[in-house]
Design goal:
By secondary structure, the chain is an alpha/beta fold. It is globular. A six-stranded mixed beta sheet has the order 3-2-1-4-5-6, sandwiched between helices. It has one domain: 3-Layer(aba) Sandwich (Rossmann fold), CATH 3.40.50.150. The protein binds S-adenosylmethionine. S-adenosylmethionine binds next to helix 6, strand 2 and helix 8.
């Protein structure tokens, strides 16, 4: 029985051509209110439907998701982001970013580039005026603080910025800018150029970098903007978890979504 189910799942996953865009998210039996700087309804609507409902299958059958996924998984730029996390980024971009004053995206930690190109492919179609800024050393991980971080499982040196830029150009993704260097040295110039962001994808693993990203981006986030953390619930990234705890303590916030990524909101006062 289990084998039959797996075969059906595999056939559905690989043989059905994606043709049906996701139209909406399922409603929850919960009040949709803002409390402690977040809207739990929105977060649990995304997470619970991806984990337990049919939403993951619907997203898989969405032509835009599959187009962006194909970009993200090109071998030379292949993203480390898992499929559920890419699905969540897709839902945030398609259904939630539209309500904000800015649809620009900033990614802290780009590595081979696939996640940034995934977001660029989505923005290109959904918000043609918006841009992605993708920040990384593109030379590997900086020094680890052994008091709060574990040594990362990879040195992240196997990346090539020329290859990433060449791939973006070949795909016609002229809405993404790659910025090389420590984020602590490059971010302020990016903020001045971009003005504001609707979504910050924080994927820099280490405590110092996650903390710098969340603290420095705060002022340039659109009200209600999304802070999306890829590492905060990873067993290998205690420093990223600590940084999120500091965000909660320091700003009196709660987490909007815990799975597949930690999502928090910047400056969210109401749902207007
Ligand atoms: C987990 S990877 C990013 C994965 C990527 N988002 C993807 O889609 O596959 C983490 C990256 O953060 C970068 N990084 C960590 N600390 C940094 C810092 N202070 N400045 C710039 N890049 C940093 C590393 O070089 C590494 O490439």
């Amino acid at each position: 029985m289990a084998i039959a189910r797996r075969v059906v799942h595999h056939l559905k996953r690989n043989l059905i051509v994606p043709t049906v865009p996701v139209a909406c998210l399922p409603a929850l039996d919960m009040a949709r209110v803002v409390e402690r700087g977040r809207c739990a309804y929105d977060g649990y609507q995304r997470g619970s439907a991806l984990a337990h409902g049919t939403l993951a299958e619907e997203v898989w059958n969405d032509p835009l998701f599959r187009k962006a996924l194909a970009v993200a998984r090109l071998p030379q730029v292949r993203t480390m982001c898992t499929e559920p996390r890419l699905m969540n980024l897709f839902l945030l971009t398609k259904f939630f970013l539209k309500d904000l004053a800015s649809q620009n995206v900033i990614e802290y930690g780009t590595y081979r580039g696939g996640g940034a190109l995934f977001m660029a492919a989505l923005l290109k179609e959904l918000y043609p005026g918006a841009k992605v800024w993708a920040l990384d050393t593109f030379e590997g991980m900086p020094e680890v603080d052994a008091r709060v971080d574990l040594p990362p499982p990879d040195d992240f040196a196997a990346t090539n910025l020329d290859t990433i830029r060449f791939t973006a150009a070949g795909l016609g993704l002229d809405n993404v800018t790659f910025v090389k260097g420590l984020i602590q040295d490059t971010a302020q110039t990016v903020y001045a150029e971009a003005g504001s962001f609707g979504l910050a994808h924080i994927d820099v693993v280490l405590h110092s970098a996650v903390k710098y990203a969340q603290d420095s981006v705060w002022e340039v986030m659109a009200p209600g903007g999304y802070l999306v953390y890829d590492d905060a619930t990873e067993p290998t990234c205690p420093g990223a978890t600590r940084a999120v705890e500091e965000m909660i303590e320091g700003r009196g916030l709660s987490i909007e979504q815990v799975w597949p990524q930690v999502v928090m909101r910047a400056k969210l006062a109401s749902l207007d």
